[in-house]
Write a structure and sequence with these properties.
About 65% of the residues lie in helices and about 10% in strands. The protein contains six helices and three strands.
Length: about 160
Amino acid sequence: MKKSFYKGHTQEGAAMTQLILASFRLHGFLLADGDRLTHRFGLTSARWQVLSAVARSTEPKPVAWVARDMGLARQSVQRVVNDLESAGLLSFQPNPRHKRATLLVITNKGHQAFKAVTELQVPWVNSLAEGTKVREIETALHILQGLCLQLQKNAPSAE
């Protein structure tokens, strides 16, 4: 591993930079594989992510909450939600707590698509995990979750 990309990196900072760069590359690979898994169902990785977030939620949520949970901008999630609604995979329901922030609900067609993609995802992810110990995966997960918390806590203001 390189010591530093820029003058002033600590060893930890240089290692974190390597981790971040690897995560960017991983993200690209995951999007490409996700697109391959989902294309036959009229989905993309982005649509699958949003559909999954709604399908896995214990209660209907407004777009802003789904976006926050995913770490994405509300506007980008709204665009995907509109596509999913046009495709009949999601619908909107009135929100008793807020007149304008309708709640997202997965439709029967959406459940079917989510189930079909999940049936392809299971063997795909099992093959990815092959040869890696659960403890190693849990350590990586812990590190990534901690990094997400740090980024949320230290997010720069919009100004």
